[in-house]
Structure formats: structure tokens, C-alpha cells
TrEMBL record:
PROSITE patterns, A to Z: ZF_SWIM
UniProt source species: Salvelinus namaycush
GO cellular component: Shu complex
Name of this protein: Zinc finger SWIM domain-containing protein 7
GO MF term list: zinc ion binding
Name of a matching Pfam family: SWIM
Gene name for this UniProt entry: zswim7
Biological process per Gene Ontology, one example term: double-strand break repair via homologous recombination
Sorted UniProt keywords: Metal-binding, Zinc, Zinc-finger
Source domain of life: Eukaryota
Length: 141
């Protein structure tokens, strides 16, 4: 996990990854910890993971981003490499108000990465450039 998240959050993702690999479920103590660290968006993020709403898109050049279909059906692009989501909630509660570490979409991206539950989609470098520049979303949405 990237170093910009607090150490406790990084350790929590590592614990979830280890436990999920061994037991294919997240025990109650880790669910409580998720709720404590990330607040109300933890349950919403887990719901997005359960619904398989997270897709990791990657290109031959090695670029990678996550695209998350939110509860409203809109597609948001998340970058775990720089801790950013394109949704309005991230801009408002994380960047502007500094009330949260992240939004439910980027938390879902981190959780799906830890649990290895994200869908995978290979894109051309040109398609990835369009996504990274904000000009286009995946073609299957």
C-alpha cells in the first residue's frame, strides 16, 4: 500500500488481505476496525466490492487505475497510486472539508485490491490515455 495512508490504515489493509486469503471472509474484528478508521463509507465500500463494481484497468505501458461503478450507476476513476477519486464526495469531504481519509469508491478499490476481487480489464495505451485525461470511460459501461 502507498505510504500516504496512515500506518493504521495500511496495516488494516494488510490484515484484511492476509485473513481473506486464508479464510475467504473478513472477520468481525476487522470489519469493526474498518468502520472505526473509515467511518460510514466502509459499509458502502464493502457493498461495492460485493457487487463486483470495481474494475482494475491496465495498459501495456504499466499504467493502472480503478474504475468503480457507484451506487448511482455513475463510473468513477480512482488512482490508488496517488490516492485520488474523480467523484464529488472525494472533492468535497476529503479535499475540501478534510473530514475523511477517502471516499467509498477509493476504499472499494483498496479493498478489492487487498481481497483480489476486482475485475481486470486490459486496455491499449491510447484507451488508458483517454481515461487518465478524463476524456473517456471504458467502452463496456
Amino acid at each position: 500500500m502507498p505510504s500516504f495512508l496512515p500506518t493504521v490504515a495500511e496495516q488494516l489493509f494488510k490484515d484484511i488481505q492476509k485473513t481473506y486469503q486464508e479464510k475467504t471472509k473478513i472477520p468481525d474484528d476487522l470489519l469493526i476496525a474498518l468502520r472505526f478508521v473509515f467511518g460510514s463509507c466502509a459499509l458502502q465500500a464493502l457493498d461495492l466490492v460485493d457487487q463486483r463494481s470495481v474494475t482494475c484497468v491496465s495498459s501495456p505501458s504499466g499504467r493502472r487505475a480503478y474504475q468503480v461503478i457507484g451506487g448511482s450507476g455513475l463510473l468513477y476513476t480512482c488512482y490508488t497510486s496517488c490516492h485520488y477519486c474523480s467523484c464529488p464526495a472525494f472533492a468535497y469531504t476529503v479535499l475540501r472539508r478534510n473530514e475523511s481519509l477517502l471516499c467509498k469508491h477509493i476504499l472499494a478499490a483498496y479493498l478489492s485490491q487487498a481481497m483480489e476481487l476486482s475485475q481486470q480489464e486490459a486496455l491499449s495505451d491510447q484507451q488508458m490515455s483517454s481515461i487518465l485525461s478524463g476524456r473517456a470511460a471504458r467502452t463496456d459501461t
